[in-house]
Amino acid sequence: MKGLRAGLFILLCMTVQVVKAEAELADVDIPDTPEAVQRGAETAVNTCLACHNLKFLKYGDLSQLGFTDKQLDDLRSGKGLKETLKTDMDPTMLREGFGLLPPDLSLMAKAREGGPRYIYSLLTGFYQKADGSVDNHVFPGVKMPDVLNYSDAKDPAQRAAIEEQARDAAAFLAWAADPHAAERYQLGYYVLAYLAVLTLLLYLSKRRIWARLH
Amino acid sequence: MSEEDKVDPERRDFIVTTTTVLGAAGVAGACWPFISSMNPTASVKAEAVTEISLQGIPPGQVHTVAWRGEPVFIFHRTPEEVAAMQKSSGGKDPQADKARVKEADWLVVVGICTHLGCVPNKVADGWLCPCHGSVYDNSGRILSGPAPRNLDVPPYKFIADDKIEIG
Amino acid sequence: MANRVIAWIDQRFPLSAFIKNELTDYPTPRNLSYWWNFGFLAGFMLVLQIVSGVFLAMHYKPDVSLAFDSVQHIMREVNYGWLLRYMHAVGASAFFIVIYIHMARTLYYGSFRAPRELMWWSGQALLLLLMATAFMGYLLPWGQMSYWGAQVITSLFRATPWVGDHLVLWLRGDYVVGDATLNRFFALHYLVPFFIVGMVLIHLVALHHVKSSNPSGINLAAKDNIPFHPYFTAKDFFGLGVFLIVFCGFVFFKPEFFMEPVNNVPANPLQTPAHIEPEWYFLPFYAILRAIPDKLGGVVAMVLSIMIFAAMPYLDRSKLPGGARFRPIYRISFYIFIADVAVLSYVGAHPPGGVLAEVGRVATFLYFAVFLLLPLVSKKEEAWLRARGLPSELEALVAGEDDKAGGRR
Questions:
Q1: CA B91, CA B81: separation in Å to the nearest integer?
Q2: CA–CA distance, A62 with A179 (Å, rounded to integer)
Q3: C258 CB near a chain A CB, below 8 Å?
Q4: Domains of chain B by residue range
């Protein structure tokens, strides 16, 4: 009973973190398959890198995603393996064009509430207003243009294709923000299994030892 | 606290023993990530392969390049220097000159004195270490002084006539 | 062979005697519940934080242009760097959970009462040292929340009369939180845990002098003690196993649960994030700070809300031994206090203003009321309980206590 009360208290403290998320994000599953992440990497290099950097990733790191050497060579088009992913645009021109520097994307999947779902929702949040200009549901007044041309797409098949591209881009950025996730989960399963067995044994040992008391 | 409650060290229970052994194994395993974190990172290990161009090093000249943070002497030897080195086998660490080079006119050695780690200076007939006076010949072999071994030859290969790859 | 080495040492150093008296044969009340495991868990967390911290310090760079990137270097490139970082970050939260439960146990069972006041006060010092360490550690990743949290909290010292401005300048080493601040916070974050180790030793020496309290709150007869080893070593390790399962669950599967997303954005001195809030373990005190409209008043209230725990041995004036077990009013006060802290945490997590501001003021008032009314409430409760008749086990002990104290207490 006392344990239950304490547990509830701790749970209450933890919920104060959870209640804050805004509810506008799309209810979508961001995949984590190698294929999706690879496709997302291509979108990132070919589209996002036009304006954004991913300074914590090097081209050589992309080989962890399962690309062949040939595929990697195509992707980096001449850039060295040790080079970080950076836009070719001049920062001053970017600042003049957009009014600010486009943020680095290495940690974007962690830096926003909702993470990868936020990225997906932003990319598919562009819509055309009555006066013909384009705005975004998730980030009204965003300076970023509709890079996937979602606001223009009327055909459902077209929209579905762009949504898949957005999901893959989110999947890649999720990996970029947390490249060791798979390793962490795998090690975690082993550690928790070991601890479960050990704790059971510790419990049995405790009971054995305390049974000696009369 | 009665005497019977004190532990009898002879009574070792199977469950308790197993638990202790498993627990100790876990503690040992848990040490590994900490120890491993002190090893070089993947990027440091990637830096361990360096391409060096041999262009612009005229005969008789030495260029010093960085490999794994260490100085490496790239010495373009004249035919006279090569001949002199092939005639001798060095000093207290005898070794044939041919065994120390891949192509006779190019000597590639780690520029760290095998005594206590200073960088020797090039002199006419080889190198002189300023710290304790070790003398090496034009093949990097120790002739006199406290250094015990010849200058180390790093792993390298020619990837073109005028390019080598160290590491 | 091992026995001969030990014998050699024993002639020169009281090794075996120390282990026997303070560890293996150390008399411990047999009725200690699992609430008594948390001191051991706190010690374990101290060791874990120091070990993970030292290994992190081998890679971290305390310079404003390098700090954020060095953390990414640790997360991405250092072998098991991600594990070290997550252990240390989750570990900070785990440490506070353990300490708060440990404190709650002490309050509930009255373990702060004579002769354990010095244990309680060394514990108070430990809480302050831990809070300082955690606060300074949070600046080190140099994220947006790190920076602005430090900026806001160091600003509080400006409220100090006469020397406020100089004090803030001296603390920061600059007009704003900057490189000077980061470097010294790193030096101190590394240092203070060793002060904590020293204070823990004082805490344990005091403990071994007065011995553990127990759930009944009454001093037990000597025959009701059992040797610490193997009974409580076994129980402590089992508790550790359960704790580690929960801890590793977070480290491996939800490591960023306690982290603010905006801290993944490098610190920007020119732009404040939309919501600033401290880590969860500071939320109740943060709410109290904001509840008082006056700047100095808010700071004084916040400091008092932490320091008031120290007064407990004198606030609780009941002569009835022990804590909540035989005292229903005290028990209710305890639960009111816990609920109030939960409410304050909720208020502290949300932006200021609105209906929560009023809730925060009421909760702050209640927080202090619970403490400050205790002298009156405890005496009235004692009178009431005596009038209706004490349980027999308590009668004998109360009579004994009254005799011993010669009516002084």
A1: 17
A2: 10
A3: yes
A4: 3-37, 46-166
Question: Which of C264, C270, C276 to mutate to probe the A interface, most A CBs <10 Å?
Answer: C264
- C407, pLDDT greater than 60: no
Strands B142-144, B135-137: pairing kind: antiparallel
CB atoms under 10 Å from CB of A73, counted, come to: 14
> What are the DSSP E strand ranges found in chain A?
54-58, 84-85, 126-128, 134-136
Tokens representing A133? 């200009």
- Please give the Cα distance from A163 to B54 (Å, whole number): 53
On whether the CB atoms of residues C305 and C360 are closer than 8 A, the answer is no
Which residue has 């589209």 as its token pair?
A47
DSSP states of C141-199: T-BHHHHHHHHHHHHHGGGSTTTHHHHHHHHHSSSSS-HHHHHHHHHHHHHHHHHHHHH
Subunit contact A197:B22, Cβ cutoff 8 A: yes
pLDDT digit string, tens, across residues C68-103: 999 999 999 999 999 999 999 999 999 999 999 999
pLDDT, tens digit (0-9, with 9 covering 90-100), for C366-385: 999 999 999 999 999 999 99
Here the ipTM equals: 0.92
Provide the angle, in degrees to the nearest 10, between the axes of the packed helices C328-349 and A2-18.
10
C-alpha neighbours within 13 Å on the C-beta side of residue C382: 16
Asked if residue A14 belongs to a domain, the reply is: no
Residues of chain A positioned with their CB less than 8 A from the CB of B19 = 198, 201-202, 204-205
Per the structure, the count of domains in chain A is 1
SS3 C355: helix
Q: Which of A85, A58, A60, A55 is nearest to A72 (CA)?
A: A60
The answer, yes or no, to whether residue B9 has pLDDT greater than 70, is no
Task: Count CB atoms within 10 A of the CB of residue B79.
Answer: 10
In this complex, the residue of A198, A212, A214 whose CB is nearest that of residue B23 is A198
- Separation CA A114–CA A179 (nearest Å): 18
The pair of three-digit structure tokens given for residue A114, joined into one six-digit string: 């909702």
To which H or E segment does residue B88 belong? none
> Given strand B70-76, what is the order of strands in its sheet?
B62-67, B70-76, B106-110
Domains and CATH numbers, chain C: 20-276 (1.20.810.10), 277-409 (no CATH)
- Whichever domain contains A93, its CATH number is 1.10.760.10
Single-letter code of the amino acid located at A117? R
In angstroms, how far is CA C167 from the centroid of its own chain? 26
**Per-residue tokens: C137:** 């550690």
Residue A4 in domain: no
For B46-166, the fitting CATH number among 2.40.50.90, 3.30.360.10, 2.102.10.10, 2.60.120.260 is 2.102.10.10
